[in-house]
Amino acid sequence: MFTDAFRNDAAAKVTGKAKYTDDYKLPDMLYAVPVHSKVASAIIKTINYSKALNQKGVVAVYTAKDIPGNIKFGQIIKDCPTLVNRRIRSAGDVIALIVAETREIALSALPFVEVELEEIPGVYNPEEAMQGTSPLVNPDFGSNICNYHKVRTGNMEQGEKEAELIIEQEFNTSRVEHCYLEPETALCYLRPDGVMEVLGSMQHPFSTRRFVASTLGCKLSAVEVKNIPMGGGFGGKDDTAALVCARAALCAYLTRKPVKLIYSREMSMRESYKRHPYKLQYRMGLKKNGKIVFIKARIVADGGAYCSVTPWVTWRSTVQSCGCYEVPNVQSDVYGVYTNNIFSGAFRGFGSPQVNFAIEQLIEMAAEKLNMDATEFRKMNMVHQGSKTITEQKLDNHTVSLQQVMDSVLQEIDYENKVQQCSFGNPDVEEWYGIGYAIAYRGVSLGAEGTDMNSAIINIQPDGSVLLETGVHENGQGAQSAMILIAAKELGIPKELIRYRLPSTSNIPDGGSTVASRGTIMGGGAVVNAAKIIKQRLCEGVEKALGINGCSYKNGNIYSAQGEKVADFFAAVRWCYDHQIYPFAFGVFKAPQISWDEETGHGNAYFSWVYSCQAAELKVNCKTGKITLLNLVAAHDIGKAINPALLTGQIYGGMAMGAGYALYENFPLVKGEPQITNYNGYRVMRSTDLPEMTAILIENADPNSPSNAKGIGEPALEITAPAISTALYRATGKRFTDLPIAPQVREYVKGKKQ
Amino acid sequence: MKITVNNTEYSVSEELAELKLSTYLRENLGLTGTKIGCDIGVCGSCTVLVNNKPGRSCLLKLKDVVNKEVLTIEGLASSSGTLHPIQQAFIDAGAIQCGFCTPGMVLTAYAFLLENKQPSREEAREAIKGNICRCTGYQQIIDAILLAAQRMWNNEDKRFD
Ligand code: FES
Ligand code: FES
């Protein structure tokens, strides 16, 4: 237990002073609400909003024809409408915006917007959508296959020949809602200087800026998006949150008044993108001695109505499609598919939780079939120092620590003993016990998903206080605190001297999205590099003041060439200002080069990798099927622990979310229509659903990262589900290959009783 | 109607009897520390204390709190700004991430500690089950509650193992 955790924004949050978007009010502010579609596939014939306009207090109703800039935008394919002009592609589409003096008035005017629609056939099953005969979701794109990635390694024919044992299995994963506690909200106003200022609950200010500028048809420099506290994101506050900001900005632009657009939970759940549901079909060939000779995978991701980041999500699934194992012959085919479902996008894990759920169970099934211990089987096949991944990347530029993370977890949980006690559906007991674990590696940061760089500004004031900012966004994970700690360590000064300045898009360059667990590695790298420059500046100041050369900086002091201390930090700062030197630095960290060949699916996909192991213990009531988690243990090699208390918190939170993914979470659609509208229908893990958890931090400093740290946000979640599903297999004797599992266990138990 | 919020008494016109407490706190009094996560009484982020008992301000109407004492997160620290031990414990145990559940969670924990001065981890876990936190997995929130109990009531160390 931690008793002195450091978090710079905690005092504001614990006193209720922290201001989230909805906590701001501006004079003359108006309120907007969205008019959502009631169907998933239709053509809009007419929109009649005159009755709505006649309601007292309604100021305006806007539709697509009021948009001065582009109607559609998107991060990869520009297919996502700020407001739909003609064709409705999903039940989350927004047709109009009502602007009124109060939120209540705006909401009560909703029924008065009359939309005449002609429903047209939609497609809701990705396999059907892939058939040439299906209606096209995005006719401009010309195909329902949004993207296709593959890996071709070795020789499959050879692999098939060599295999002495084959296993085949299909897995299906569920559509999952992020459930950040704060729904999307935006507050925009047109400043007197002509800049549209945007406050919003969003995790990618630069993406938001692009959406807003595209909608308004203005330059990026005419939009300023500010970082303010946000009530959770988990990857979910990118496209939808940006669209919400773009809509509020549109209303502010047209009314010339500040406009706040608040989403209710119902609106948020209806519209926001979800985790991609996957269908994964595997065929694995094995030697009797336990060696994997080939893996053939066909993976289909339901991308829903809009592209969002589906090509990137599925790319990670492609690279990691065979888990952390050496496989000589590989054929992976991964498709992202358009349907008329609510769209899918970024969600903590980003294409890895699905493949890990499948592959880690497949590994267990293979070991069982071979009559081998699953741990021995893993050790025989998993990557080690110098191994090649399935994309032919040699793992030799960092410590490959799978064995270490695995040993730590198995020892901590006493696996060898406990695995002997599993029930396997024993009919003679009232309660079944099971234990299971899973391992994984994860490519750090974006890989070939996008341009990967970040920057930091260190600006030392004349009194020695330090202003720090980076292109990393505070999503609630504690990014600011990590940046402060890295700067404090590099400069050898107390962290209290450093104030993190939440940046805006107008004063720091675009550092990409704070996703992909890249905040610490990328932002931290930029801070280290900025600190290097600052140290030189401080030395220059001292050299000028004393008329000497060859000074060096160490732990907050400046030393002469002879090694004698000549100035402390404060004196150095003062002398800088006295001698026309700004103790100011702009540091950049560019991710090391990666490579990718779409044709073969080969390349150095990521510049480094995180290694993880998690284990779960649980019991199942044989009468009711109720599952009780007893224990969750995780070990992750995060390179270096910058802020252990917060890092540990990421692991606990990730495991909780991963456990929910395994057992309960599901966001069903019927003909594209959400069946759940609020938290009452969606089971988020509560305190009593979770056991005590243990997090083990493994630190093998990563030379590819200037701060030696890697990321944790996503590794923490991506293998909880397979650990739990294997534990459930050992408890019940039945393997569950679809998510979520708890309802199936209940059914299974019911079936047994009859 | 008279309502006391954070030790200040307010007179409220009868017309507002049906107004949601959460709306009154956030809009009328500007006490925006009370957060709205679901607005249907399920997530607990709008929790305030009414006569020291947790209540969901998105479900309560003003008429429900007439002549009662409402405590919001803004009223927990001392007037000089010193944090309440439960607040400090949330910080020190690393129990805060995005912070959106924090006000409701802190108040729920505070009400619980008023009743239970030597809580076990299981009791603390049970006490916060009505409050959803999507970020933390609750582990460090439970740590915080036990840490606060120790600091508030001077318990022995053994409960922290
Ligand atoms: S906002 Fe009141 S319980 Fe969720
Ligand atoms: S800290 Fe984010 S919901 Fe609890």
Record the SSE blueprint.
The complex is a heterodimer of chains A (754) and B (161).
Chain A: H1 10-14, E1 30-36, E2 42-48, H2 50-54, E3 58-62, E4 72-73, E5 80-81, E6 87-88, E7 94-100, H3 103-108, E8 114-119, H4 126-130, E9 145-153, H5 156-162, E10 165-172, E11 185-190, E12 196-200, H6 205-216, E13 223-226, H7 239-255, E14 259-262, H8 265-271, E15 278-286, E16 292-304, H9 310-319, E17 329-338, H10 352-369, H11 374-381, H12 402-413, H13 415-418, E18 431-443, E19 453-460, E20 466-470, H14 479-491, E21 498-500, H15 519-546, E22 552-554, E23 557-559, E24 565-568, H16 569-578, E25 584-590, E26 609-621, E27 627-637, H17 644-663, E28 669-670, E29 673-674, E30 693-698, H18 715-718, H19 720-732, H20 742-753
Helix pairs in contact in A: 6-7, 10-19, 14-15, 15-16, 17-19
Chain B: E1 2-5, E2 8-11, H1 21-28, E3 47-50, E4 53-56, E5 69-71, H2 85-92, H3 102-115, H4 121-127, H5 139-153
Parallel strand pairs in B: 1-5
Antiparallel strand pairs in B: 1-2, 3-4, 3-5
Helix pairs in contact in B: 2-5, 3-5
The structure holds FE2/S2 (inorganic) cluster (FES) (2 copies).
List keywords for this structure.
heterodimer; A: alpha+beta; Aldehyde Oxidoreductase, domain 3; Aldehyde Oxidoreductase, domain 4; B: 161 residues; alpha+beta; Ubiquitin-like (UB roll); DNA polymerase, domain 1; 2 domains; 5 helices; disordered C terminus; binds FE2/S2 (inorganic) cluster
Word description of this protein:
The complex is a heterodimer of chains A (754) and B (161). With 754 residues, chain A is α+β, with helices and mostly antiparallel strands. Among the domains of chain A are: 21-122 and 182-271, Aldehyde Oxidoreductase, domain 3; 398-444 and 607-754, 2-Layer Sandwich (Aldehyde Oxidoreductase, domain 4); 453-590, Aldehyde oxidase/xanthine dehydrogenase, molybdopterin binding domain (Aldehyde Oxidoreductase, domain 4, 2-Layer Sandwich). Chain A has a seven-stranded mixed β-sheet with strand order 3-7-1-14-11-12-13. Chain A has a five-stranded mixed β-sheet with strand order 9-17-16-15-10, with helices on both faces. The two termini of chain A are 47 Å apart. Chain B has two domains: 2-75, Beta-grasp domain (Ubiquitin-like (UB roll), Roll); 85-160, DNA polymerase, domain 1, CATH 1.10.150. Chain B is built from five helices and five strands; from the N terminus they run E-E-H-E-E-E-H-H-H-H. In chain B, helix 2 crosses helix 5 and helix 3 crosses helix 5. Chains A and B meet through helix 1 and helix 17 of A and helix 2, helix 3, helix 4 and helix 5 of B. One FE2/S2 (inorganic) cluster sits between chains B (96-101, 133-136) and A (181, 232, 476). One FE2/S2 (inorganic) cluster binds next to loops of chain B.
